Sequence to fold (370 residues):
Amino acid sequence: MKIAITLLSGVSYGGITYFRNLIPALAKVDKVNQYHIFIQRDSPLSFTVNQENFHFHVCAVDTQSRMVRLFWEQFVLPKQLEKRKVDIVFTAKNATIFLATCKTIISIRNMEPFSYKNYDNNWRLNIGSWVRAIVTKASMKKADRIITVSQSTGNYIESLFPEIGHKLNVIYNGNPVNAGCLSTNICEGKPQFLLSASKFVAYANQLNLIEGYAVLNKKKGDLPPLWLAGGVHDPAYFRKVETLIMEMDLTEKIKMLGLVSNERLMALYSQASAFLYPSTLEACPHTLIEAMSFGVPIAASHLPPMPEICEKAALYFDPFDKDDIAEKIELLLSNENLREYLRKESLERCRFFDWEKTATQMVTVFQNIS
Fold:
């Protein structure tokens, strides 16, 4: 069987983590099927897999432009698939290849198109989300199979579109920490800082986290500083965050780290006294799995899929209630028994997420529709 995967789009933020781990895992578990991987120029993935049944095809045009990528995937790629007599094409994103004559599989890893109207986004982002919503709905109708990366995501999609329920397959992401689950957190003694990591966009909910932190900071003078890591997805929202920090007189307590490297983020997990995750819209957040791998105590939003991902490995708060956020942060910092319990549960729970298991389940889906 010939399986094609396009890596031209969806390679920012979580997409980088997804592909960097999935492709080598597929190579480990499947040495029979033929894989045709379409990549951008200078993609490091072509050097991570050297196996006879994996063939990497570099796109002949510069696909840095979104419009060029879109045109190439939707109009040139279908001809490439026919030329190579591909049986299945997997896009690993919300959008399918509409002109493909072979079987198609998509993966819903972006929930924003379903709920963007619930947030105060920049108008440009709303236009983009509106377009993605149309493409996602059409893609789900076209696709032969739909991968959802959490049960919560699958349930939500089926509630909106019950007619496609038979297409859904839940396959969780693996553990992004390459070294596997770590047994210790190297931050010992008095807590040094609280960490939160997410791109700056309205649904990531840093504003309410800061409000909750401010409530607790007024109560506790020795509260550890809050460090926020992540790139700027919505500049207008980012400015709101900066303004709130200044208005709350927290510029000495809250540190903006920007988009940090993967190596730097791993070091931050290992040194943080707690990891805070206030997001209100996710499919399967890699950052929670990463944080669990380092045994750092976690307080997270109680909205799905966060409780599904962490189960007993996190303390949950109402992400829209600053007082509840403050209460859970205080409890997380003050209760040593709770911290130790969460640490043990995290190191156990993170073992559930395994890229080879993810890849094996993907191959099963491929085989079942061939």
